[in-house]
Design a protein that fits this description.
Layout (H helix, E strand, L loop, with lengths): L40 H12 L3 E2 H4 L5 H6 L4 E4 L3 E2 L9 E2 L9 H12 L3 E6 L10 H14 L4 E5 L8 H10 L3 E3 L9 H4 L5 H14 L4 E8 L5 H13 L4 E6 L16 H13 L4 E4 L9 H21 L1
Parallel strand pairs: 2-5, 3-4, 5-6, 6-7, 7-8, 8-9, 9-10
Antiparallel strand pairs: 1-2
The structure holds iron/sulfur cluster.
């Protein structure tokens, strides 16, 4: 799942009927995290379209702080395979439980949304579907195929679950469908997996990304981490090294925000200067691109970043052929 987990300060729904003194204390955010409430016309239009096409978005499900900015610009990250996840990660706001059947119209509806919004680049993610034999991989393939048919000029970025305990063939099928960017988030450092991401295995996630690159080196690979969960600087550097050993092209780092008081606490609000320092280290370690700031999310400015990745690769190829 995507690393975007925040609920606006005004949202006290589940806590409304508690006595004030019984309510868990909500952590105060520093000024650099605050964002404006979404009110624009573009925001309302994006919302209407998603409802009409019966599509879920991670922007809403995870209560992403960037929703006002992104939806105003008609950027939304579609969340396929329903809105109920089979895992219960300590950082994630998406509902957990027994998911509903897979919607056969979802691939075409996703493509229709991309066409209606005139998207140059689309990001598609999903909940974890451990209940499905292929973890939902075939639905990703159908979405990619529908997009290629309907909006052939839209570049496609997918953000998948780890497909843990599913066959290699699940990931191979997605790679064969050739998304432009394959993203899978490591989310945090390995030491914190048992508490933050208990259903996942750090090295299985690294291997997934490594195999995507091995199967098709032309697909850009991308991964991200949430900061502020108790990781140390050296542990973050080690994760960067592990990512580079899997040839991951693009790193995203953003501040973890506690979605509700029941979720994992924010241990630290990492300063913008510290995010800049991580970006410099990441570039020195060889990532083609690093996006690192408090409000960075996997899909934030994804279209612009894809264009930068493509330009960087083309520049390298041109240099190599000239030399
Ligand atoms: S950053 Fe991603 S998830 Fe958040 S609103 Fe923008 S597109 Fe949606």
């Amino acid at each position: 799942m995507e690393t975007i987990k925040n609920i606006p300060d005004t949202n006290i729904s589940a806590q409304d009927d508690m006595n004030i003194e019984d309510r868990p204390v909500r952590q105060r955010k520093p000024d650099w995290i605050r964002v404006k409430a979404p009110t624009s016309k573009g925001f309302a239009e994006t919302k209407k379209l998603m409802r009409e096409l019966n599509l879920n978005t991670v922007c809403e499900e995870a209560a992403c702080p960037n929703i006002g900015e992104c939806w105003t610009k008609k950027h939304a990250t579609v969340m396929i395979l329903g809105d109920v996840c089979t895992r219960a990660c300590a950082f994630c706001n998406v509902k957990t439980g027994m998911p509903r059947i897979v919607d056969p119209k979802e691939p075409q509806h996703t493509a229709d949304a991309a066409a209606a919004m005139g998207l140059e680049h689309i990001v598609v993610t999903s909940v974890d579907r451990d209940d499905l034999p292929d973890g939902g991989a075939s639905q990703f393939v159908k979405v990619i195929e529908a997009l290629r048919r309907t909006t052939p000029n839209t570049t496609i970025e997918i953000l998948t679950p780890d497909f843990r305990n599913k066959s290699e063939a699940a990931v191979e099928a997605i790679v064969t469908a050739r998304p432009d960017v394959y993203n899978h988030n490591l989310e945090t450092i390995p030491r914190l997996y048992p508490t933050i991401r208990p259903g996942a295995r750090y090295y299985a996630s690294i291997r997934l990304l490594e195999s995507v690159k091995r199967l098709d080196p032309s697909i850009f690979t991308k991964s991200g981490m949430m900061m502020g969960l108790g990781e140390t600087r050296l542990e973050v550097h080690q994760v960067m090294d592990d990512m580079r050993s899997a040839n991951i092209d693009f790193l995203t780092l953003g501040q973890y925000l506690q979605p509700t008081p029941k979720h994992a606490k924010v241990e630290e609000f990492v300063t913008p200067a510290a995010f800049d320092a991580y970006a410099a280290i990441g570039r020195a370690k060889g990532f083609e691109l690093v996006a690192s700031s408090p409000l960075t999310r996997s899909s934030y400015h994804a279209g612009d970043d894809f264009a930068k990745l493509r330009d960087a690769r083309n520049a390298k190829l041109a240099k190599a052929s000239a030399g």
